[in-house]
Amino acid sequence: MPKTNAFFANNLIQWYLQNKRTLPWRATKDPYRIWLSEIILQQTRVAQGLPYYLKFIEAYPSVKHLADAPESDVLKLWQGLGYYSRARNLHATAKMVANDMNGIFPNNYKELIKLKGVGDYTASAIASICYDHSEAVVDGNVFRVLSRVFSVSTPINSTVGQKEFKKLAQQLIDQKQPGTYNQAIMEFGARYCVPQNPNCDACIFNPHCIAFQTKTVNQLPVKIKAKPIKKRYFNYLVVISKNEKTILQQRLGKGIWHKLYEFPLVETSEKVNAKKLKTLPQFQEYTQNLKFESITLYNDEPITHKLSHQHLITQFWIIETFKEQHDFIPISKITKYAVPVLIENFVSEFFANY
């Protein structure tokens, strides 16, 4: 076990300075760019998040530019990253900072955490990196490093565990260079103390890591078992008129994909065939005025789209119609709408030749 807090922090920072990746948000202390990077990197790997960060900075070089953008444009630029509430909160906070705070982000943890979509981790990251405040970050990477090095078996997704790890992280942070320390421990967890098969033999902490010494690395961190995955059965009605127009609808209810667009949806309790689908009241409501010519199943095997706590078993039904309604849009304009990646993948494949 590390002899002192300084020993742990010094070794971590030394490793980081020699091994850190060159990333654009590490070349600045601009709170707008740090905040943007941290929101993008929530639930997202750096390799996936980096292109989005660059696109956002190009489109919205300042918080004022982001605040002035229509929410639909922000959601469209976010498309493919998932967890779309992050994008909606991003836009809401940008408007708050730009309009109510004269474009200046709060300079302390207490005020930062009041911003929409900013929790303990993000507020700590901004406060430490931008303002050199000793606020320790705690995320999945930090949980993993601390639980192994110090052999902490309290579940990380329990209230007690989160308090315990936060307290330990706060004790270990380097008071003189908190921003560097926070980035170091996150980088170490992301690239070295990885979830599966870490290279413990070459680790800078292996003489002191209790989990390594007791051969319990693969048992830590401990997590309370998650709830069973819920299965949902989605049937999308892809209506196509003779004039190559279709229907998209915006999801306005609570739940997944709020404010994104999709084809008319009929959700069922199990997989259905065309005969069963046509008997359902929701299907009849959607199609009663269409006078459709034919209905065919596009994908013989359902597409299973996996979200964090649910699997969407999805079928796309192609409905050809002679009649158009006022809400039809040209197929050529679908790509202008922010849609879930499930819909985006279907559109890019099915409508490739339209």
From TrEMBL:
It catalyses: Hydrolyzes free adenine bases from 7,8-dihydro-8-oxoguanine:adenine mismatched double-stranded DNA, leaving an apurinic site. It comes from the Bacteria. Pfam families: HHH (PF00633), HhH-GPD (PF00730), NUDIX_4 (PF14815). Its cofactor is [4Fe-4S] cluster. Gene3D superfamilies: Helix-hairpin-Helix base-excision DNA repair enzymes (C-terminal) (1.10.1670.10), Hypothetical protein, domain 2 (1.10.340.30), Nucleoside Triphosphate Pyrophosphohydrolase (3.90.79.10). GO terms for biological process: base-excision repair; mismatch repair. Binds 1 [4Fe-4S] cluster. SUPFAM superfamilies: DNA-glycosylase, Nudix. It is an enzyme of class 3 (hydrolase). Residues 40-191 form the HhH-GPD domain. Its EC number is 3.2.2.31. One of its GO terms (molecular function) is 4 iron, 4 sulfur cluster binding. Keywords: 4Fe-4S, DNA damage, DNA repair, Glycosidase, Hydrolase, Iron, Iron-sulfur, Metal-binding. Belongs to the Nth/MutY family. Adenine glycosylase active on G-A mispairs. MutY also corrects error-prone DNA synthesis past GO lesions which are due to the oxidatively damaged form of guanine: 7,8-dihydro-8-oxoguanine (8-oxo-dGTP). This is Adenine DNA glycosylase. It comes from Aequorivita viscosa.
